[in-house]
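Help: why these numbers?

___
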Amino acid sequence: GSSRKTWCYPANSMRTASLELVRTPLVLIADVDLLPSKNLLEGLAEASEGLLAGGGAGSRRFLVIPTFELTPEDDDEGGFSPRQADTTSLLTEDVGVARKHLWELCLRGEAASFHEQSFPAGHRASDSKRWLRGMPEAYDVAWEEGYEPYGVAVRAELPSFDTRFDKYFLHDKHAFTAELAYSGWKFSVFHEGFLLDRPREEVPRSDYLRRFPDLKVGAASLMRRKFRELRCQQLISGIEASKDWQASLPCGCAKHLEGVDAVPPFICGQEGASEASREEDAGAEGPPCWVMPLKALEGIRRGRTGIARLPWEGCAAAVRGSTGVERLRESWVDLGPGEPLNLRLTLGTRLEALTMRYVVSLAGEKALQTAGRMPGISAQVDSLEVRSTFRWSAGGVGRFVLYSPGDDSDITVECFRRRPWHVPVDGAKASDPALREQTLEQHMQVAEGILLAWAWVDGRLVWEGQAVVDSPQSPDDISSRDGVDTVNIVVHPSTPCEDAGLRMSSLQFWTVERPLPVKRALLRSQSGLDD
């Protein structure tokens, strides 16, 4: 019987090997069974001068050749036969005549842009309708997720194909063109020729995916990883990123995290978020109640004492502990070898709500090579501790986490909304300030035995949810023991990283409560606290 090996083919390994055999300055990247239009070679020869005169990261160009396919036709015996007459005439006609012929076939449903039905994202950005209307010169198009056109480029400037996709034979070309786009390549559609795919019977790929569903999940997971790697490379190289990068990140929605239905778009960072989550300045307003600069920890760092009292009005706040204080600098925390920074800011009282805000960036490109935790808040809920923290993964992918230390099975965390984001590097050569530093803000609030939490990055909601006690005490037993009482000043790199750090501003605090979300009332009822 058939096995997975029957289906898998080392496509990208073969493409990479083919590129290494090329001896000409330019190379055509296309499937071997595509047919060229009349005089395509001559037209490309004229256009090659512009490609070869480019050079440099900002002027590298991929000349897209529009690609079409003819749809099969029924034969007298109920099967399919190729539209041989149309294929022959299209390939022997001058481009202007063939363009009009293709337009007529498309209107009758007898031709279409390549894989328009099975994978429309693959060639949609080429805007074939624009090409069919006739263009006097090549036109630029914007890369979009899933785009995998065929075309011509300077061989020496092309990256290799990612051979990790060989075992899936999915997203293999997609990963290649994504790397071009993230590296600053421009895409232009050639106006004086096209490629044509002949109709033929194929085993539907959907049958293959139904037989081996794990391949689809694995390929989707690898593609998301590819996007994160490209983002890391983009930050390190200083290539200019889009103004609204948060809307162009690998999606963090439940569907795409699971990968089961993870087909393009993978980049849909706004999916599932309400309009409220996109509002600017959605966090705390007004002047902070308290401010704690890193210099307030100077006494601890110098080893004179294990406690630093803070002159805050309305509470007896103090920073306690000395673990990892040698990492402290005036405005940043070293990520090199040694114990992690782990101090506790006790408030001396329990508050119903607390918001903490600070500005961060990774100091040094090497900081992208490690992962780590940042300061968070701790609260007591029904006598159980719940903590929050911002974290970053290698490459700078950030996330907000609400958890109970010690894997307490009596606490269930419910996430209402979330959005992916990145921790910036202060050396990034980008005009957008969000790529150099970001303002992180988190809010904890205890109400009737349930802890509510929100998190923002530069005023944009990235997480909203709650922690519910599975076996709560009766309402009469809920007392003043519940509330927010501690801030965890933690910077913990997963792997020590020399010549790298986390740049961090003063910590600012507010004690204003937020309106309760609608979903909170529903889950509270399910938890058994309501009558």
The first helix runs from residue 4 to 7. Confidence is low (pLDDT under 50) at residues 1-6, 238-281, 428-434, 518-531. The CA atoms of residues 118 and 204 lie 9 Å apart.
